[in-house]
Amino acid sequence: MARPPATIDALTDQFGPHLNFLPPGGWKGRGEPEKLVKTHCCFCGQQCGIQLKVRNNRVIGFEPWEEFPFNKGKLCPKGIKRYMQDNHPDRLLSPLKRVEGRGFVPIEWEEAYATTIAEIKRVQGKYGNDAVAILSGVSLTNEKSYLVGKFARVALQTKELDYNGRLCMVSAGAGNKKAFGIDRAANYWDDILYADVILCAGTNVAECAPITTDYIWRARDRGAKLIVVDPRITPIARTCDIHLPVRPGTDSALFLGILRILIEENMTDEEFIAAHTTGWAETKASALALSLEEVSRITGVEVADIQAAARMWGEAKTSFLLHARGIEHHTKGVDNVVSCINIVLATGRIGRKGCGYATITGQGNGQGGREHGHKCDQLPGNRDISNPEHRAYISSVWGIPESELPQKGHTAQEIMEMIHAGEIKALISICFNPLVSLPDSNFTREALSKLEHFTTIDFFLSETAHHADIVLAGSLHEEEEGTSTSAEGRVIKINKAVDPPGNAKADTEILLELARRLGRGSFFQYNCSEDIFNELRVASKGGTADYYGITYQRIEDEFGVFWPCPEIGHPGTPRLFEDLKFSTPDQKAHFNAVAYRPSAEEPDDDYPILLTTGRVVSQYLSGTQTRRIGGLVELCPEPYVEIHPSLAADYGIQDKSWMRVESRRGVVVLQAKVVTTIRPDTIFIPYHWPGKRAANNLTIRALDPVSKIPEFKRSCVRIAKADGPEN
After folding, report:
1. Are 211 and 360 within 8 A, CB to CB?
2. What residues are paired with 59 via a beta bridge?
3. Which of 89, 103, 111, 312 is buried most, with the most CB atoms less than 10 Å from its CB?
4. Confidence check: pLDDT of 26 > 70
5. Who's near 283: CB < 8 A, 6+ residues apart?
């Protein structure tokens, strides 16, 4: 006989009246959604599919989108809770003006626009066009990335434009271009499933890209072996077959050692090398120039472990190499990237099922954002702004004389240096929080204070926005239609779910109005995001990142389309180089010889300990969004210092005790997390927090000479026990 359902009265009779079954305010359902909107997560570069529940112009929840092929309904903790920021009380509902002694006060859009335009004209009239800079972000859609680049060069007519992808993917992009002539993961993620060996270098996938972990686990279910290169035993490393605990900043030496073993034990694919590559002789010589004993001394990894990893990779029939910021955030990030690629090429593991190479894109549209507009050296289609043919083509698409198109500008950190030096006087930013994201936070704070004018477009008042003169209330991910490009190179559709709340506006509307008020509106005649995308398609045509054959309808019908896709009838390209023809002028893959060189800062008696930084699963980038989602904050409320027991004992530090970490640039005081899963000469701090808790108070402003990415993953510090947090 079926048991009758329990009632509140019956449960109270059974367990006593002290039970409080009702939450404060009672049980209040959100009601059934009026619609489900198929879209994508607003966070990392995996761009997982999700369905947002919408009622009364509010996102009230989500449903899994099980049909979307990448994640098949699976989501990480951030994806599950991403909708919770939509109705946060911190949401900007109108433009703001900073008033001395009063802070920020709401103003009308007319005043906000008029003040911004007047200041731009004043600064450019007095100091020149390039005295105004734009810093942008790759959480923006492809359409907005394209629009920002065009706005900077056509409306503002400044060369000083860069983006926060400069802190993420540029070393990978530069290395990819050197080796393959194209900046994209060589394979889609399905190829991971068929690899016999997977090598993860500097990528904490379980916390930073959890759905990628699912692909690795499924490969392991069919017998794949896993090698992890990381100074920490991250969650994915706990399950691996071989862990190589490399000393931060020495990755290129480690890969030279692996390549040496592949050469000496005849595990290279000489037929592939001879037919499809260049530069092998120099690369081979560079690997043989460094003994395994020297590699072990530099990296802190045992010779036997290096040999085991090389043999596991070399003897496999199929293999897949994944890397991310751990090897890229260095003054030799590009060297580290091409060192990885050299191993892939030496064994001929490219262009076929189960054999490949990919960089895990960190930011939501880190892939598409670096292809179509807001890099200082780039034009749409991943064209080179210094190439006369590329300049002529884009100028024709934009309808301007080539002579009016600005030349190459400076990178994000260089722009901040120029602001600090007084060379750049005004700044416009969108979707970028450099006060938390850039190295040496104290320097960044000083620079922002020197600006004569600063306008930012954002949906929350970020730490950087507190330095702005005008804040333009912009739009969240789900408040505009557009496209994004995932880590795989799959172009996907962001569907609008709700309108911006209050008196906030769509980012696109704001940029178009600024262009109109600058007298350049005739170059920005768009009625919708699809109009911008269709111009982007034309602008990308013939470039290495060719989107011409991709349309909104195709993306909807096909669950995304992989670029390059040069014609409407083209199926897209999930796997590159299947014909073993590469995107270089000679159609061959290029080895790049690397000689190990030290990092910008080496340990000494004053600062003897290495600091590396990274993410936690519950937070995203500078935390502007995720630190406002209670469920995520609860998972990791504060940053901490991960430290090995032996190092902690040397300084009298115990688990959860306070400790002081000091570099040549700043100080943080945080609680210790004493673990055995980190190198004894290294400490780790997650970087998502601002102010006195910011890991970037400690990091160094040194840059890779090619990519100009900062060296976030290695700084030298000293530590001491502390009595408590600094006030």
Report:
1. no
2. 54
3. 312
4. no
5. 259, 342, 346, 591, 592, 593, 594
Nearest to 716 by CA among 611, 637, 620, 627: 611
Q: How far apart are CA 401 and CA 396, in angstroms?
A: 8
Please give the angle made by the CA atoms of 198, 707 and 337, to the nearest 5 degrees: 20
Q: Can you spell out the DSSP letters for 38-73?
A: EEE-SSSTT--EEEEEEETTEEEEEEE-TTSTTTTT
**Mean pLDDT (whole number) for 538-549:** 98
Torsions phi, psi for 667 (to 5 deg):
-140, 145
Return d(Cα 560, Cα 492) in angstroms, integer: 5
Cα(700)–Cα(166) distance, rounded to whole angstroms? 15
With contact defined as beta carbons under 8 Å apart, do 617 and 207 qualify?
A: yes
Q: Are 357 and 199 in contact (CB under 8 A)?
A: no
- Give the dihedral of Cα atoms 228, 239, 308, 351; nearest 10 deg: -60
Q: How far apart, in whole angstroms, are the C-alpha atoms of residue 233 and residue 484? A: 32
Does residue 520 contact residue 514 with C-beta atoms inside 8 Å?
no
Task: Give this prediction's pTM.
Answer: 0.94
Q: What is the pLDDT of residues 338-348, one digit of tens each?
A: 999 999 999 99
Task: Write a three-state SS string for 573-638.
Answer: CCCCCCCCCCCCCCCCEECCCCCCCCCCCCCCCCCCEEEEEECCCCCCCCCCCHHHCHHHHHHCCC
Dihedral of the alpha carbons of 244, 249, 253, 256, in degrees to the nearest 10:
80
Q: What is the mean pLDDT of the chain?
A: 95
Other residues' Cβ atoms within 10 Å of the Cβ of residue 556? 13
Name the token pair of 647.
Answer: 């190092």
- CA atoms 377, 379, 381, 386: torsion sign: negative
Token pair for residue 693?
């808790």
Give the Cα separation of 215 and 205 in Å (integer). 11
Note the helical H segments in 613-705: 630-635, 645-650
Measuring CA to CA, which residue among 59, 69, 132, 123 is closest to residue 500? 59
DSSP letters along 464-520, please?
TGGG-SEEEE---GGGS-EEEE-TTSEEEEE---SPPPTT---HHHHHHHHHHHTT-
Q: How far apart are CA 311 and CA 198, in angstroms?
A: 13
Using a pLDDT cut of 70, give the percent of the chain over it. 96
% of the chain beyond a pLDDT of 90: 94
C-alpha to C-alpha distance for 701 and 329, rounded to whole angstroms: 11
Give the model confidence (pLDDT) of 237-276 as tens digits.
999 999 999 999 999 999 999 999 999 999 999 999 999 9
3 pLDDT tier (thresholds 50, 70, 90): very low
Measured CA to CA, the distance from residue 151 to residue 617 in angstroms comes to 35
Closest CA to 476 of 48, 145, 87, 54: 87
Q: Report pLDDT for 28.
A: 56
> Residue 662: which H helix or E strand, with range?
strand 658-662
